[in-house]
């Protein structure tokens, strides 16, 4: 199966450090890292075989003065084709 890609961009004009979190549907961290890039641009790769219904991307400054949250919900649609072998 193919991977799913997420590009996260954040304009951090002050250059102060911040954290990026990726949380699963239960709020458990899948990823967290500290950065101080002024122009943050990172690609996250998620393996498509993980059974997730929701991901949360959160960017938060270390002092908590800024916090941005993005929720991504997944849904799966199964389409089945049924053929009769009766002639």
Structure description:
This protein has 87 residues and is an all-beta fold. The chain has a single domain, classed as Sandwich (Immunoglobulin-like). Helices cover 0% and strands 51% of the residues. The protein contains no helices and six strands. A four-stranded antiparallel sheet has the order 3-2-5-6, with no helix packed on it. A hairpin with a 5-residue loop joins β5 and β6. It is elongated and about 75 Å long. It starts with a strand and ends in a 14-residue tail after the last strand. The model has no long low-confidence stretch (mean pLDDT 84).
Distinctive features:
87 residues, Immunoglobulin-like
CATH architecture: Sandwich
Helix- and strand-based class?
Answer: mainly beta
The largest sheet is: 4 strands, antiparallel
* Shape call: elongated
H/E element order: EEEEEE
Q: Give the count of structural domains.
A: 1
Give the secondary structure arrangement, pairings included.
Layout: E1 4-11, E2 18-23, E3 29-35, E4 39-46, E5 54-61, E6 67-73
Antiparallel strand pairs: 1-4, 2-3, 2-5, 5-6
Entry summary:
The protein has 87 residues and is mostly beta strands.
